[in-house]
Amino acid sequence: MTDGVTHTPETVVRWHDALAISEVLSDVPVRVDVAGTPVIVIRTPQGDVRAFGAECPHKGAPLEKGAVCDGRLACPWHKAEFSLNDGCLIEPLSFDPLPVYPVEISDGRVLISPHPEQQRRAPSSRENERAIIIGGGAAGTAAAVSLREFGFAGTITLIDDDGASPYDRTALSKTVLAGKAKNGKPPGLRPDNWWSIHAIRRIRDKVAALDVGTKRITLADGTGMDADHVLIAPGSTAKRPAIPGVEKDGVFTVRHAKDAEAINSRIETGASRAVVCGGSFIAMETAASLTMRGLDVTVVAPMDVPFAHVFGERAARRLMTLHEEKGVVLRTGRRVTAITGDIRAEGVELDDGTHISADFVIMGTGVTPATDFVADLRAPDGGIDVDERLQIAPGVYVAGDAARFPHGSSMVRIEHWRTAEVQGRQVARSIMNQSGMNQSGMNGSGVFDQLPWFWTQQFDAKLEYVGYQEEFDHADFNGDAETFDFTVTLTQQGRWVGTVTAGRPKVTGELVLHGPPEKAV
């Protein structure tokens, strides 16, 4: 490696000879080391060579393994999208852009400065406007962060009755209950001091009522607040089925950080046997985490093969077998009819008369949107119908679990973390009147049109899904189920409805960037 020094009026930039230009192919990221800093180099179809930080700001994923399409790069782990023009964030899960490093081409070599360029800030505007966000989860946090990123200089108030600073809820069942989280807590979505630094007011309270016409919010303590822009993003509450004993001590749900804290406390005081009720993602991820922690875990699920209706029979059976291989006892096709024990849960009774002893019980039986404060707007499933811009009225938006948005001839509601964050960012764009950003999943009119993606981590297996979780009549399996290296294409009467992958992140990444196959170019 050779170094050169270029003197400019403002600074001294040391150039590092990174690689030959011939090694940089169009739309294929190449990872290099620049003075100890990992950098990816990529050539655009127009021939421009650019250099960015090689690790996703979200969780550190290696971006050279990401998917590239139409000037965008998708993180291989959680599908954050970045612009290959300037490294800016297009879609979450990251909330930060990529560092951009100056590049020069000399004598067929790519020279890169180890000093990243200064990030540009959007000009401030809307100084006299008020935005109120109901809910501090994925959608609410994404909206608040994006508003400041886009230059919104008015007041932002985030209302949430969860006492913790907004955190990564997906970590609860995946890492916190497995005992792998730092300090036993889920990571924050932003550093604790970020909120005060960016002048975002956080109120710990519940919203009692919202007048959509006037945008007036009434808190549970009677306080009234007025806004110019309102985002309804309250998330969901965990369901507790109406079975005898469900309110006993030792019956938990996994929805909030305090839930995981209570379960961990029970384990630390000697609990070693758990029954997990339900075949949901939360239920099965929790079962895997507790098993990895050394507990004896029994899952009681009403369906014969959990996830067969989502992943297809073959992929779902392999995941089911993995649980059995790791020691999980599966009682599928069964339902819990009662929680036993005098005061504290001591086990469960099943619909076939079987009794299973346990030190605690976890209900992983689904969620319902927390929209009681706008009961007149609720659909039967608890969601709220919105238009293609996620609006229910001028200046009033809904995002996340509560949003029922148009898809084809029906209204759909997606309970996925990334979709919630993407929708929150979309609302921020709408408030700032940003449109014509086709590469960010919007059409020229600012319509929400991002293909949903989610993932589940169970033991050492990660499965990804792209689609709207529609019904399918055929699952085309390609790959090796045993090693979790496969693609499943789901169709309904020949129409693509979803793709499932294991060990093939680029397949799902390209779909997220391209859109559904019928739209792909």
UniProtKB/TrEMBL annotation:
The keyword Kinase does not apply. Its cofactor is FAD. SUPFAM superfamilies: FAD/NAD(P)-binding domain, FAD/NAD-linked reductases, dimerisation (C-terminal) domain, ISP domain. It holds the Pfam family Reductase_C. Residues 16-112 form the Rieske domain. Keywords: 2Fe-2S, FAD, Flavoprotein, Iron, Iron-sulfur, Metal-binding, Oxidoreductase. The keyword Coiled coil does not apply. This is Rieske 2Fe-2S domain-containing protein.
